[in-house]
Amino acid sequence: MNFVVHALLSENEAQTAKLVALQTAFADVCNVIAQTVQQTRCWNRVGLHHLAYRALRERFPQMGSQMICNAIYSVSRTCRMVLQHPDSPWAIQRRPNAPLPLLQFKPSAPVYFDRHTISLKNNQLSMYTLDGRMHFQLGLKPRDEARFLQEKLREVVLARTPQGFRLSFLFSSTPGEAQEKTEIVNEMPEYILVLPPNPPAASSTAQSIPATA
Prior knowledge:
37% of the residues lie in helices and 24% in strands. The protein is of the alpha+beta class. A hairpin with a 2-residue loop joins strand 4 and strand 5.
């Protein structure tokens, strides 16, 4: 069984600027990875890592090695939704021999973290940024904080909301539960544009993937 804990960050102006910079840089890395997906037709996380990791580390030296891995995960995850979701107009089942579209991540795309890039102890959060670690007091309820010790942490996602930046922690209490299930049933992301292969130069053919009901 999956459970999500949300925590709104109480950031000041300087911290907000650093989080925006990280979010923008993360989207830039994802967009380069998306080009590799279109060219190679590979969006398997492990396969993408072998194809892209070394070049990404050289191209984006300001991003930590683990954040590069998280960007690869983000692209792989998103490709599963855009290219494999049965309700997606770009599902490869519908067009198995067609060239792949190009996914474009908007600057508003979420940032994925893991236990190497974010940590929590006594409600004190330590988070990776381009300028070193940033710290926040989360104020989680005791039962939610206990999940970090008792359950499997599947995902940590940073997204910007009208109220500010929010962290979402996805836990799974079922051993061996397939994370892939969560990826497939989620709504299509609004932060993605899909560019058809070789779009006409005179017209704008980008479209957002619609949300599923």
